[in-house]
């Protein structure tokens, strides 16, 4: 199994402190949801993480803890440059095939899903040739489908007949989820693209080196060519799925995972009991958090390690990261409160949710732009690490960079 780790600037200022794939969603690092799903697949031998991040102490600690918890080998392979979704696995193909795997999964790190991996394996055995490849697909509405890779299938066989990445006009309402089941034959197809890229580069004028023969995109370079050849199939899931491109989408992803905990990890969900805060809906509370019993939490709230929450505090649709201090009677709605930040008494920190349309079962979360018509797009409020909000002020739809000590309220601003 491979998890391709993307580089993302849309997650700032939170990604200043922690690599985006390690950002906690529903109480655990984003990548842990992927690893848990992979560890449940029968005969899974190894998990490889591929990315362009410089490994640091936090990543190494996460890998060590995950190996101990899931009893499976987990290694991080660092690309020498950002090589794209296909170039990364091609660069490390010898590592991938060294154990002679019959098949392997590729999961993009920035997706939230129920990860129906065993179902994909079963589907692959029942459909097509033994050496076929499988894309996980889901249904989007007509307008939003054009923001994703679109799949035209044979409705009887589920073969992918046509694949277009982010088309300019409507192609299909079946979209690519960024979760794939391959076998080693895929490297022949990626290798052919690599050879072509090398030949094209020889014919081109010398460039500044930005274009690399190894920079290969599975979606545009591989799937488009494989479609209609009897090699590529789509398994459509009815389970939840969403991208996690921005900090706002992390709150929505947290809601999806917290809801899934009812069946997968009920022990992670807080319950109402005497001497504890009032819980509404799905809430995760780390055991080390210190919360006044008069606080009201939920729905969709995650409380990290060592968080302190005072009397009468209200938190809803938010992620509170470790070490944060929410003082008496403050209110936090649709926000992410950064590590070791403090919100003063009676302060209000509020954002605008960026959820999909609840009346459309096929709606997906929109990839929001930071600015619209020259103004900051109303979205969730984000406090970077070690931010101090004074008492009795309102912070609305704003992004506060780390280590800021505010002295007044702000609305629709980025505080640098």
UniProtKB/TrEMBL annotation:
Residues 9-197 form the Nucleotidyl transferase domain. One of its GO terms (molecular function) is transferase activity. Pfam families: GMPPB_C, NTP_transferase. Residues 279-415 form the Mannose-1-phosphate guanyltransferase C-terminal domain. Gene3D superfamilies: Hexapeptide repeat proteins, Spore Coat Polysaccharide Biosynthesis Protein SpsA, Chain A. SUPFAM superfamilies: Nucleotide-diphospho-sugar transferases. Coiled coil: none annotated. PROSITE patterns: HEXAPEP_TRANSFERASES. Belongs to the transferase hexapeptide repeat family. This is GDP-mannose pyrophosphorylase Aa.
